[in-house]
Specification:
Layout (H helix, E strand, L loop, with lengths): L2 H23 L6 H36 L8 H22 L3 H7 L10 H4 L7 H4 L4 H6 L3 H14 L13 H6 L3 H7 L17 H6 L22 H18 L3 H9 L32 H29 L4 H25 L5 H11 L2 H5 L4 H34 L1
Helix pairs in contact: 2-8, 2-12, 2-14, 2-15, 3-8, 4-12, 12-13, 14-15, 15-16, 16-18
Length: 415
Amino acid sequence: MDFIALSVPAFFILIGLELAGAAIAGRKWFRFNDAVTNLSCGIGSQVLGAFFAIITFWGYTYTYENFSLLKIAETPLNWFLLFLGVDFAYYWFHRLSHEINAIWATHIVHHQSEEYNLTVALRQSWFQSMFSWWFYLPLAFLGFSPLMIVTVGAVNTLYQFWIHTKAIKKLPAPIEFIFNTPSHHRVHHGTNPQYIDKNHAGSLIIWDRMFGTFIEEKEEVVYGITNPLNSFNPFRANFHYWFELVDTARKADNFKDKLFVFIKPPGWFPASLGGFKPAPPVDLNHVHKYDTKTTAFTNIYILIQFALILGITSYYMFFSKDMIQSGDPSILFFAMFMAGFILLSLYVFSLFFENRKTAYGWEIFRQLLSLGMLWFYKEDAIFNLLLAGFLGIVLISILVLFIKHKTESNRLKAA
């Protein structure tokens, strides 16, 4: 059972409540372009994660069946011990993802947003799972079944959703002492120099207290990364740091420094390139956030199209693993086609947010490409009915885009 997929409706209900609460209180905690980008990164993580999950589950299963020391029974006590084991493994993965450049290159995605709300919880790297699962492998070696590990891992992930909010200030002291809370995790997302690489906890903050990485939230937190992304493109979000590392390694003088670029902490540079560069100080009175202006029409259009993509993604999340493992080449092709279409959609939305001239052309191509799903389900009456409605939306979308683009072109000529 995919607990993450089943929790999606609850995620959006809570996001809606937080958004409504912020609006009533007059708090500017959300920006539409930022929130959609956060969700786009999360969607991409789920789309590609369907392929990666098969690999990681196979790794747990192979280790458990061939090398496990024991076969641990599913008793309440053992579930609790596994919860501690998973949370401990997560702490060390999370900590090292901030201390090793090659892992930070995947984890950085989660920290790029300059806002802090529940959509940030869903801003996940597309490739992080390929690094993180190794940290849980010892649990399979000890004798915990793959199903137990995956289940507790999902619970640990779900716990971390609610701590991405400004709405909750401080909880009672015993809770703050034991558990990871919004206050503790706000610190973790800060670019303030004293907050960097602190509070790596998943569910329990006790690991940070034990290993010297805990700090209280005191100064107001400035969110994001020290070298801002300045983009709403989810592809750039997931690849930009890799490009930076490769470029730095290329400029390094010797092989040792080239290797160190990938295994040293963020901020490390060879002496020939200036040496370590610490995080710059933040000025709480002059915080600049990357932003762009789009028309109300564009935002409404993207909102409608994004809602459709959420529906397609929900279907994909529930059935992709079965499609991938079906053994039928046509079904596997369709799963890959759907994954590619979703990722392309996320890219096109970012073009609109960044006011790229190519956005209209790419969007029309995307709408036409979506008709490929009609062909796959051409013999299914129910899906033909649903997709006929979808076809209507596609044609209306293309017409609206054409009129909008024509209007804007005429306005620019007149100016």
